[in-house]
Amino acid sequence: NAGVTQTPKFQVLKTGQSMTLQCAQDMNHEYMSWYRQDPGMGLRLIHYSVGAGITDQGEVPNGYNVSRSTTEDFPLRLLSAAPSQTSVYFCASSSYPPGQRSGNTIYFGEGSWLTVV
Amino acid sequence: GENVEQHPSTLSVQEGDSAVIKCTYSDSASNYFPWYKQELGKRPQLIIDIRSNVGEKKDQRIAVTLNKTAKHFSLHITETQPEDSAVYFCAASIRAAGNKLTFGGGTRVLVKP
């Protein structure tokens, strides 16, 4: 049981390049989400998914795309990287949306450190 | 949308003393309030959570209190230990708004031995 696996762990991009951050979970969780964490700040929700084929925008979706073709995978695509997207990105999964059920633990991946130069 | 403010941004306490972190939220419809601990370079980990139908919850040295009238909730850590040193984040979500979590800005806690 690997939990939530994110790749790559570190990445440097040039402005204008595109890339995909991968996220996979092996817990059969329906709810998956992507957050970004800027230095000294809390996490901000980028996109989330309540199940395969369903995605929705979070607080800061501009410049990012997601898809959910399978229950296990939830990749995050940066369309045209900008220095403002330099951040640490966390993928998370849980059986249900946050707070919907007691005992519903949100599992975070280890994070992906992205630098855009 | 929901806004969550967290204070203080840094907190230094002597080992064995108590630490209190307070968060205020803007939307009275918020119904779920988790607290996360994040060590340097690590992922956030849930340490305790509370729902809007409960006023207080305890788990060993950690407790959370909720004041719905004033729209604030607090994390209390008693008998602090050096391993409690970390950044703590509060968050809030609204069931009717898709249960999306809105995080506070974090509190860096340093426990001095």
In short:
The complex is a heterodimer of chains A (117) and B (113). Chain A is mainly β and 117 residues long.
Using only CA atoms, what is the Rg of chain B? Answer: 14 Å
The biggest sheet of chain B, with number of strands, parallel, antiparallel or mixed sense and barrel status, is:
6 strands, mixed
Greatest interface and its participating residue counts: A-B, 22 and 26 residues
Task: Supply Rg of chain A.
Answer: 13 Å
- Residue share in helices of chain A? under 10%
Q: Which spans of chain A of ≥5 residues are poorly predicted at pLDDT below 50? A: none
Structure description:
With 117 residues, chain A is mainly β. Helices cover 0% and strands 48% of the residues of chain A. Chain A has no helices and 11 strands. Chain A has strands at residues 4-7, 10-13, 19-25, 31-37, 43-51, 54-57, 64-66, 76-78, 87-94, 107-108, 112-116. In chain A, the strands form 2 sheets. In chain A, strands 2, 4, 5, 6, 9, 10 and 11 form a 7-stranded mixed sheet that branches. In chain A, strands 1-3-8-7 form a 4-stranded antiparallel sheet, with no helix packed on it. Chain A is globular, with a radius of gyration of 13 Å. Chain B has 113 residues and is mainly beta. Chain B has no helices and 11 strands. In chain B, strands 2, 4, 5, 9, 10 and 11 form a 6-stranded mixed sheet that branches. A 5-stranded antiparallel sheet of chain B has the order 1-3-8-7-6, with no helix packed on it. Chain B is globular, with a radius of gyration of 14 Å. The N and C termini of chain B lie far apart (41 Å). The mean pLDDT of chain B is 95. At the A-B interface, strand 5 of A face strand 5 and strand 10 of B.
Keywords:
heterodimer; A: 117 residues; mainly beta; 7-stranded mixed beta sheet; 4-stranded antiparallel beta sheet; 11 strands; B: 113 residues; 6-stranded mixed beta sheet; 5-stranded antiparallel beta sheet
